[in-house]
Amino acid sequence: MAGTLSLRALNRALLDRQLLLRRDPLPAATGPRAGRVIETVEHLVGLQAQAPFPPYYGLWSRLEGFRPGDLAELLLARKVVRIGLMRGTIHLVSAEDCLALRPVLQEVLERGLRANFGRQLTDVDRAELARAGRALVDDRPMTFSEIGDALKSRWPQYPPNALAQGVRALVPLVQVPPRAVWGRAGRAAHTSAEAWLGRPLQAVASVEPVVLRYLAAFGPATVADAQAWSGLTGLREVFERLPKQLRTFRDEQGRELFDLPDAPRPDPGTPAPVRLVAEFDNLVLSHGDRSRVISEPDRQRLYTKNGIFPGTVLIDGFVRGMWRVATARRAAVLTVELFGDVGGPDRDAVTAEGERLLEFASPGSPDNEIRFGPIP
User: Fold this and answer.
1) CB–CB of 241/278 below 8 Å?
2) Rounded to the nearest 10 degrees, how much is the dihedral formed by the CA atoms of 307, 308, 313, 317?
3) What is the helix (H) or strand (E) element at residue 218, kind and residue range?
4) Phi, psi of 31 (to 5 degrees)
5) Residue 114 confidence (pLDDT) above 70
6) How far apart are the C-alpha atoms of 363 and 234, rounded to whole Å?
7) Domain spans of the chain?
8) Would you call 148 exposed, middle or buried from its count of C-beta atoms within 10 A (0-12, 13-18, 19+)?
9) Tens-digit pLDDT profile for residues 220-278
C-alpha cells in the first residue's frame, strides 16, 4: 500500500532536490567549477529565464561561492543557452539539454502558437515559414522585430509580430550573447540552436527521460504537477509505462504521487534555512498544486500588475515574503516585503541572507542597502 506524505514531507523533499536545504560548495579550480555549474543547471532541468539575470540569483541561492562570471563565461562559450522550452517560456539550459529537450517540447511551442497567433496566421504554410525564418536567423542573429519586418514582404497580409512568433515556435531559437551576460546589455537577438551549437537536435523526442528528470528535481509529484511544469499533456500514459522505475505515495488529500525509488525524502522535521529564491524560479512554478511551498493567499500576492514574478523569501521552507533588488553603478538596494509578522531570529536570518545577496549583486559597496517594506 502506498504511504502518505504530509505537506511538510513534500516541502522538505522539494527543497532537498532543489539544493535549498544546504548550499553545495563550488570547487576552486576553473574546470571543475564550470562542470559543477553545468551539472547543477542540468539537475534542475534548466532555470527559468524570461528576464536575463534571474538564473544568476538562482544559482547563487544553491551554490556556495558562485560568482556571476561562472555563468557568464559558460554563456559566452556556448556551453549553456537560453531557449523557449517548458511551458513555452525561456529557460537557461546546458547545450546538451537544449538539443535533447527542444524536440520533446515542440508540441508545447506549437500549441502556444495556435492559441495566441493561430487566427493571425491562417493559411500560412508552417513548413515554408520555418524555412524562411531559419534562413534569416542562420545568416545572422535577429530580433523578433527584425524577423517580422524581413518576412512581411513574403507574407504582406499577415502581422509581422505573428510571423516572428511563428518562427519562434517552429524553429529552435536561442538568444545569443551579450544578452544575459552579467554586467553587459544586449538586444534579444536569436539564431537557431543548430547554427549556434554546430550540432543537430536529437532525432528522437523521448518523453520518459524528461519525466524521470522532473521527478529527480521536483518530486514526489502528481501527473498534473508534471504537466504544469512541462506544458505537455497526456502524461498519464507516460507514467503508466514506467511502473518499475517509480514508487507511489499519496498526499494528504489522497492524490497519487510518483517518485524515484531512491530519491531523497528527508524527515519532515529537517531544518530549512532562510533562502532568497530568484525571480521566476521553478521552485514556485513547477507544480499544479503549489501548496508544498506557498499558500494560495500568498501565491496571489506574487502576481504583480506588470507581470513580473518577484523573488521569494523562504522561511522554514515556505514562501513568507518577496524581494526585489535594484542595482546601480556603485550600489544595490534590496527591498524585502514579508508576509505577516516575521520577527526575531527569522528576520535576522532574512537580513543576513539579504546582505549576502547584496555582496553578490554589488560586491564591496559601502552603499548597499536593505529595506523592509512594500515592493515598489
Assistant:
1) no
2) 60
3) helix 207-218
4) -60, -55
5) yes
6) 47
7) 275-372
8) buried
9) 999 999 999 999 999 999 999 998 899 999 999 999 999 999 999 999 999 999 999 99
